[in-house]
Amino acid sequence: MMSGRSGGRDGEAAGPVIRIRVSHGATFREVVVPAQATFGELKRILVQTTGLEPERQRLFFRGKEKSDREFLHAAGVKDGAKLLLLEKPSPANIEQKVEPVIMDESVMKACEAVARVRAEVDRLSAKVCDLEKNVLAGRKVDDKEFVVLTELLMIQLLKLDGIEAEGEARAQRKAEVRRVQSLVETLDKLKARNANPFSDHNNAVSVTTQWETFENGMGSFSAPPPHVPSEQVNTDWEQFD
């Protein structure tokens, strides 16, 4: 017997395969891997999609970093499972000591929650791009479209506000908050241009958007005030922790 593994090319496991999702930075990657592969073999597969060499990869499952020799099935990785991938410092920064990272279940859940919001923001961002093309082309757009999109983006900001996040999840949430804020500001500018397409666009748009500080995912914020034309662009983002 060969303990449920038969030799394949380059020593990889043969047999049935599973699909798993790997969170890396701000993206989720779906990977097909042999069900009885090791985490080391999974790292070699991830090189193709991440560009990271195996020695620079740190894989976490259920809050624990996994060793290269450990088998996926032995760790409980099944079809549809979610893993987290972090990067080790590059060789140029190797003098910086890599501190142990404790990744608990709550952090992974927070990353997943941010990813769900990110997917919805991706969809809304595409709609903002479509509006921008129409406005820049001089086509009149119903004001209701700007209002509805802004409201939908604010809903996503509320969802982000409700996510308690630390570490990697906190960094992902912070990036997504700034992205949503940028889209809302873009909508304000497009709405102003749509209302007055023949004005001097370098000076015609005034956006004053103040966001209160998010504190560990449970902060509050004030929505952007209605657009008020002026000669000065004033954008005041408060510092996010």
Can you put this structure into words, describing what you see?
It is a single chain. Among the domains are: 17-87, Phosphatidylinositol 3-kinase Catalytic Subunit, Chain A, domain 1 (Ubiquitin-like (UB roll)), CATH 3.10.20.90; 100-195, BAG domain (Methane Monooxygenase Hydroxylase, Chain G, domain 1). Helix content is 40%, strand content 14%. The chain has helices at residues 39-50, 72-75, 105-136, 143-161, 167-195, and strands at 17-24, 27-34, 57-61, 64-65, 82-87, 210-211, 236-237. The strands form two sheets. Strands 2-1-5-3-4 form a five-stranded mixed beta sheet, with helices on both faces. Strand 3 (57-61) and strand 4 (64-65) form a beta hairpin. Helix 3 (105-136) packs parallel to helix 5 (167-195). The termini are far apart. InterPro entries: BAG_chaperone_regulator, BAG_dom_sf, BAG_domain, Ubiquitin-like_dom, Ubiquitin-like_domsf. Residues 218-241 are annotated as: Disordered.
